[in-house]
Design a protein that fits this description.
The complex is a heterodimer of chains A (about 550) and B (about 475).
Chain A: E1 2-7, E2 11-18, E3 21-29, H1 35-47, E4 57-61, H2 64-70, E5 78-82, E6 99-100, E7 104-105, E8 111-113, H3 117-129, E9 134-139, H4 147-159, E10 164-167, H5 168-171, H6 177-207, E11 214-217, E12 223-225, H7 239-251, E13 258-263, E14 268-274, E15 277-278, E16 286-287, E17 290-291, E18 300-302, E19 308-313, E20 316-323, H8 337-343, H9 352-366, H10 370-397, H11 404-409, E21 417-421, H12 429-435, E22 439-441, H13 449-456, E23 461-468, E24 473-476, E25 481-484, H14 492-509, E26 520-531, E27 534-546, H15 552-558
Parallel strand pairs in A: 1-4, 4-11, 5-6, 5-9, 9-10, 13-21, 21-22
Antiparallel strand pairs in A: 1-2, 2-3, 7-8, 11-12, 13-14, 14-15, 14-18, 16-17, 19-20, 23-24, 23-27, 24-25, 26-27
Helix pairs in contact in A: 2-6, 3-4, 7-13, 8-9, 8-10, 9-10
Chain B: E1 34-39, H1 58-66, E2 75-77, H2 85-89, E3 93-94, H3 98-101, H4 104-121, E4 127-132, E5 142-143, H5 154-166, E6 171-175, H6 182-188, E7 194-201, E8 225-230, H7 236-254, E9 258-263, H8 280-290, E10 294-297, H9 307-319, H10 340-358, H11 360-371, E11 374-383, E12 388-397, E13 406-414, E14 417-427, H12 433-446, E15 454-459, E16 464-469, E17 474-477
Parallel strand pairs in B: 1-2, 1-4, 3-5, 4-10, 6-7, 6-9, 7-8, 9-10, 14-15
Antiparallel strand pairs in B: 11-12, 12-13, 13-14, 15-16, 16-17
Helix pairs in contact in B: 1-9, 4-5, 7-8, 7-10, 8-9
Classes of the chains: A alpha/beta (about 550), B alpha/beta (about 475).
């Protein structure tokens, strides 16, 4: 049996899955001051009367990191940059004023300007004097040569031993220096809090006799053993929407193109599954207003939901983005989309007389009947959602391409299904589906789809290998691994073999080796390096991936 | 450059009644963003070791992605698209047809400029940079094969697309590639509404061996082509001198609705195919001063030592970002000095060209008296990449009401093997009724001449492009 728990913005959902069946579900409120307590209270209700020995896997998805950052409770982090030539580092808008050091590495990992030890010592001293306990050290192209970052950490450990240093190349090896700096800072800012949470969560499970491994859900819909997630907690941000998407993958036929809609009280989250694959954000998640390297599903949030305030002015209806309380029908102060749905007989969540009274306020302002006002309110909500969905498909179609095949292969995609999850979706999803010419699906257990998704999500992993045969070295983007690559005549097949081996090793380190065989090569390229008129080497790029997916025991019997 | 965006006066004093859309050049547009298309064509090469190969923009990709330039709010990245065959036929006579002269890569490079052109004309962006390959500025009006790494001319395709779709008339192209932009020059040679200025390393020392001050446009467009041959070793200072003392003043007077930079990067001091001393800072400054509405990448083959830095600098300059921190690893300020001899030579060239520019209307008047109703010239063209030799006879009608229609008789040979012969008729976009009718007659008459394999009619006013094969008697209309 698997347990999935999603601690969301308003509710904490839990599901117990046995093979291909949802055995039990539970829903409780989320208390933002006490994430762990919210989680445990709902879990306790779920496992009441269940033989905990039979639980083989517990997967958690929480808003912990999101809350820490949004509420400004994350730790203060200093930033040291080695930007080298290029953009003026002051043009990057970081949350803190960075210390800029001399020194530079180029795109192939060659040192083009040396560090200056006196500058580094002065930086360490100054940051220590300012009371920093954590410092992110990030160099441009440091992922292709770690020497500068390692040397700076070395000097910091002597000059300012109280400061914890994290280096950019350990957090992400992807191209994009400012994103790497932001991601490194967020990693440091949330790590201690996250470790405490993980520790307490683990202890609480053991106290309940649950010996099963505990996993955490990441923003890319993959699971990771809890203890392996401690280094990079920021990857678990936005796991809530990812859980919903995984839930939809589990609860709908495989391989189809679907829009996932999660309509809540004040926001609606939208995500796309294209031919069975959840759409990832092309570059990395935006956290608050910081662009990062965190791999995440492309989720669009719009400020409109069942409890949004409806207003009428100059003959126009506006919905949201604020909430004044529950729906009028439930004793709230302002009319809401929920009231309009009640008037139209599409839902039955409160007092019909109150719902009519609420919508009546809008009708009066517009000079129309209560039914017409209700229709206009619902149309406004549906319009916003449909427009956003269309925009998401358009943006996907318009993503930049750098190769001929990328440009030629992408064709238009249209949704086959509109799948509603979360509490407020059922009455609206059929209306959205109709407008998009798609099938409306409200899966069984839709309110706890995210918990089910968490329970049955499998691990994900990527591995991006770059081999520079002229320099005789290779780098792995994901964790900044750097090593020697022998053989000038390495072929693409040889490189792919090497990538497969490195991925297996990496999977072992992360405790997910059982899934290493699921990895596929998603992209590979060979560039002949020609200097003068002769070939001096090759640059080979291989990208492998264990994509987001559902674990076999669920699919085993559900397979379409 | 105060642009009068409602310019309506035709060249022969005819008032053009067409309503032009409110074109706003980069300097005055309310749009804030710089549009960028980066299309490195990582899966296309002329041949595995050719300078125009997959690797060319690889390090540029690394640099601009690592800088995070695409994330700046001042920059918006667009997805390329394929140009249509018709977009190519609007400019070129491809022999035997467009399909046989282009690959998908060419259509994408050209199409990228069209995506940015649309974004510019819709007011979404204040300027644009098509960082694309393969390049195009050596492609001439007639295309039998690849010349100087180019098959079709990306800028020219963009110019004619914009003029047709948006009714823009006066455009300036400044070719900043180290090689003479002989293809672009050929295409706009007779066009008085397109100002073409190319500065480049002296043709006596570099491919394609042309681009002398004496090449100044066809008889009805004299002075609208200006060539600035520069001595090998010219530095930032020298090129910025040309910009300040020739290009900018001439642009101000010509008052174009749009300015394009045919942006080669091979003036760089490390370029393996040329001998100039230009730096990344110089390139950034040039683009800042020129403030083109659109820049399109041309050549530049110092793929490691120059391109990553030059492109970063150009993108920053176009987006109004601070480029002062961009420099090559081995560059130290003051490294290159313009000798006084070079300076004198550049000053003399600039002064000579200013005289030509100032007397352009007189030159046209003189040419009219000299040439009667038709003007003819013969040309030989060599296609270095494909080893093709072409002979052309070009005839322009010296029309008093419009730029005049043009015919080209062309024969191409590879070695001793005859390749193709063709007769091409081109009707300019702003042609008068007589020229349109006479050009159609020329086309019909030549269809029966068996000495030509193909006969073409490029009718820009109606946007119809006809290709006739004399053997199959088949006509294709694009």
């Amino acid at each position: 049996m698997f347990v999935g728990i999603d601690v969301g913005g308003t509710t904490t959902n839990a599901a117990l899955v046995d093979g291909n069946k949802v055995v039990k579900t539970a829903i409780g409120p989320t208390d933002h001051q006490e994430i762990l307590g919210s989680l445990l209270r709902t879990m306790d209700r779920l496992i009441e009367g269940v033989d905990v020995e039979r639980i083989k896997r517990v997967v958690l998805s929480t808003t912990l990191i999101t809350n820490l950052i949004a509420e400004g409770k994350a730790d203060r982090v200093g930033l040291v940059l080695i930007p080298g030539p290029g953009v003026n580092p002051r043009d990057y808008r970081f949350k803190t004023t960075p210390v800029i050091l001399e020194g530079a590495i180029d795109y192939r990992g060659r040192e083009i300007a040396p560090l200056r030890d006196d500058q580094i010592k002065a930086a360490a001293q100054s940051l220590a004097d300012q009371g920093y306990r954590k410092v992110a050290v990030v160099g441009k192209f440091c992922q292709r040569n770690h020497d500068h970052e390692l040397h700076i950490r070395e000097i910091f450990s002597k000059a300012a031993p109280a400061i914890e240093v994290e280096m950019g190349h350990r957090v992400s090896g992807q191209l994009n220096f400012p994103r790497r700096a932001a991601t490194t800072m967020l990693t440091l800012a949330t790590r201690d809090h996250y470790r405490r949470f993980a520790e307490q969560a683990k202890r609480a499970m053991r106290e309940r006799g649950i010996k099963a491994p505990i996993y955490i859900l990441k923003a890319d819909g993959g699971t990771l053993p809890l203890e392996r997630s401690l280094d990079k907690p920021v990857e678990t941000i936005f796991s809530g929407p990812a859980a919903s998407v995984m839930g939809v993958m589990a609860l709908t036929p495989e391989g189809q193109t679907s829009v996932v809609i999660d309509i809540g009280g004040t926001t609606t989250d939208l995500a796309l599954i294209l031919s069975g694959k959840p759409l990832l954000s092309s570059k990395g998640a935006k956290i608050e207003d910081m662009l990062t390297h965190v791999r995440a599903f492309a989720v669009r949030s719009i400020g409109i939901g069942g409890d949004s305030v409806v207003r009428a002015s100059n003959g126009e209806i506006t919905v949201g983005p604020d909430r004044a309380g529950p729906a009028f029908a439930l004793g709230g102060p302002e009319p809401t989309p929920t009231d309009a749905l009640m008037v139209l007989g599409l839902t039955n969540l409160g007092d019909m007389a109150l719902a009519r009274k609420g919508v009546g306020i809008i009708a009066k302002a517009l000079g129309c009947s209560t039914e017409d006002a209700a229709r206009m309110i619902v149309d406004t909500v549906v319009d916003r959602i449909v427009d956003t969905v269309n925009m998401m498909f358009l943006e996907w179609e318009q993503e930049p391409a750098y190769r001929i095949w990328e440009l030629l292969q992408r064709t238009k995609a249209r949704p086959q299904n509109v799948v509603g999850v979360g509490g407020a979706s059922p009455p609206l999803v059929p209306l959205v589906a109709k407008r998009l010419n798609a099938v409306a699906i409200i899966p069984e257990h839709a309110p706890v789809a995210n918990a089910i998704g968490a329970a049955v999500a499998r691990p994900t992993m990527t591995l991006s290998l770059r081999i520079d045969t002229e320099r005789g070295m290779y780098t792995v983007e994901e964790d900044g691994t750097l090593g020697e690559a022998k053989g000038r005549n390495l072929s693409l097949e040889g490189a792919q073999e090497m990538a497969r081996r490195l991925l297996r090793e990496r999977a072992e380190r992360f405790g997910i080796q059982d899934y290493a065989d699921e990895a596929e090569v998603v992209d590979s390229e060979v560039f002949n390096m020609v200097r003068g008129w002769s070939t001096v080497g090759k640059l080979i790029d291989v990208r492998m991936e264990i994509p987001a997916g559902i674990i076999a025991s669920w699919r085993g019997e559900h397979g379409s | 450059m105060a642009a009068d965006v409602h310019e309506r006066r035709g060249i022969a004093g005819i008032i053009d009644r067409r309503i032009e859309p409110p074109v706003r050049p980069a300097r005055t547009s309310s749009a804030r963003k710089t549009g960028l298309i980066f299309f490195p064509a990582f899966d296309w090469a002329i041949s595995p070791t050719h300078p125009e190969r997959e690797e060319r923009l690889l390090y540029t990709r690394d640099q601009i992605f690592e800088e995070g330039l695409m994330d700046f709010p001042e920059i918006i990245e667009y997805r390329p698209r394929l140009a249509e065959l018709k977009d190519v036929a609007r400019v070129h006579f491809c022999v035997p047809d467009v399909q046989s002269q282009v690959t998908e890569a060419h259509l994408i490079a050209a199409g990228s400029t069209l995506v940015l052109a649309d974004a510019l004309m819709r007011g979404e962006i204040r300027n644009g940079f098509a960082l694309v390959r393969p390049p195009g500025h050596h492609s001439m009006r007639v295309v039998h094969g690849n010349r100087g790494f180019c098959n079709i001319n990306n800028e020219a395709i963009m110019v004619e697309y914009i003029r047709k779709k948006y009714g823009v008339r006066r455009i300036a192209i400044v070719d900043t590639d180290v090689h003479h932009g002989d293809g672009t020059q050929d295409i706009f040679w007779h066009d008085p509404d397109v100002l073409f200025i190319s500065f480049h390393q002296d043709g006596r020392t570099l491919y394609p061996g042309s681009g002398f001050t004496s090449e100044m446009g066809g008889p009805l467009a004299l002075g609208r082509t200006l060539n600035v041959p520069l001595p090998p070793g010219t530095t930032d200072e020298g090129i910025l001198y040309v910009l300040e003392n020739l290009v900018l003043p001439v642009l101000e007077e010509f008052d174009p609705q749009l300015v394009f930079n045919s942006a080669g990067q091979d003036n760089h001091y490390t370029d393996p195919l040329a001998n100039m001393r230009f730096t990344a800072q110089g390139y950034a400054r040039l683009n800042e001063m020129l403030a083109p509405d659109m820049a399109v990448l041309e050549g530049g083959y110092a793929i490691e030592s120059a391109l990553p830095y030059v492109n970063t600098g150009i993108i920053q300059a176009m987006a109004g970002l601070d480029y002062s921190n961009v420099r090559e690893p081995d560059y130290v300020p003051g490294r290159f000095v313009l000798t006084s001899e070079m300076r004198r030579s550049i000053e003399a060239t600039v002064n000579h060209l200013l005289t030509i520019w100032e007397s352009r209307d007189d030159l046209v008047e003189k040419a009219r008296q000299e040439h009667g109703r038709f003007y003819s010239r013969r040309k030989r063209i060599f296609y270095d990449t494909d080893m093709i030799t072409e002979g052309q006879e070009e005839t322009l009608r010296m029309c008093t009401d419009c730029p005049g229609y043009l015919t080209i008789s062309t024969q191409a040979a590879r070695g001793y093997g005859r390749l193709n012969t063709a007769f091409c008729v081109s009707v300019p976009l702003f042609a008068c009724r007589n020229c349109i009718e006479d050009a159609r007659e020329e086309y019909e008459e030549h269809k029966s001449e068996t000495k030509y394999d193909y006969v073409y009619l490029q009718e820009k006013p109606s946007d119809k492009f006809r290709a006739y094969c004399t053997r199959t008697r088949n006509e294709i209309v694009l």
